[in-house]
Write a structure and sequence with these properties.
The chain is α/β, with parallel strands linked by helices. The chain is built from seven helices and 13 strands. β8, α4 (about 135-150) and β9 (about 150-155) form a beta-alpha-beta unit. The radius of gyration is 18 Å and the shape is globular. The termini are far apart.
Length: about 300
Amino acid sequence: MALRLDLHVHSQSHGRTYITAENLRSALQRGKLHGVAITNFFDMSHALWLKKNITDFIILAGQEIWTKGGHIIGLGTRKVIEDFHDTEETIKEIHAQGGIAIAPHPYLFLGIGDKVYSAPVDAVESYNGIIGPYIIPNLRAKYAAKKRKLPQTASTDTMDSGYIGHSFTEVAADNEAQILPAICSGRMRLHKRSLPLPLSFIMKNLLYFKNIAPYSLHAMPCLICGSSMAVRPLKKKLACSACGMEQRSRILCSNGHYLCKPCIMEKTKKLLTPAPTERSKLRTPAPAESSKLHTLAPTGRGQGEGE
């Protein structure tokens, strides 16, 4: 038997719920998928809540973890793993919890980059549906995986239930218990399809419109002004808005703010460390889905999608 799984989906981000249990169940039915991996940042409570409340599909609980070297996905972990530690130390903790480590979008900003050639990951996400139109990052990830003879996965990396399953991994397994071993042994087939580009994506990335609000395709706001992040077609030299360090990058916010990786981590750490009487701005709210629920349009796309 082969299980059709989208192995990289975010149900919550920055205190908002983008994918509810109802949305998720409908998306899995519509996409004829057997299940999904919920890999939110900083918190696993909603992933575990979905796993408990959706029993007719496979819900793999995991976490996309910020390491000092870049993002790593832990699948099959039981509890939250602290962010901002060494990549190798983080992977060791994932394995200690009985999970597997996947290098997502290694050649996108905040991926682990060339560390994919040395980090003890179990697999590489060689096709990320969001960056599908930007072919080179996926091709470089695929080349690295082949060079190291590591298993490869395909996923959407979306926060919008309307796009779940556009890309997915078909895993040769009969049940949930067999999934992680099957991934590690490479018993998979990849189904690759890039996510469609909404109008707002074109406006911010190609036409350089400003003040574009984050939308649910992948809602990552600028840590300075809150506007949507943009991906330019070509790299150019950019100065970090916090420390002034110059780097070549294609990723900045729609208002032109750019942060180097160390400054992104530092600002995120501060947001994750609230005052004693305050809750963190980035900590995911309690699993109750009514908490700051992000309203979804009838198509499953979030507010602002396609505007």
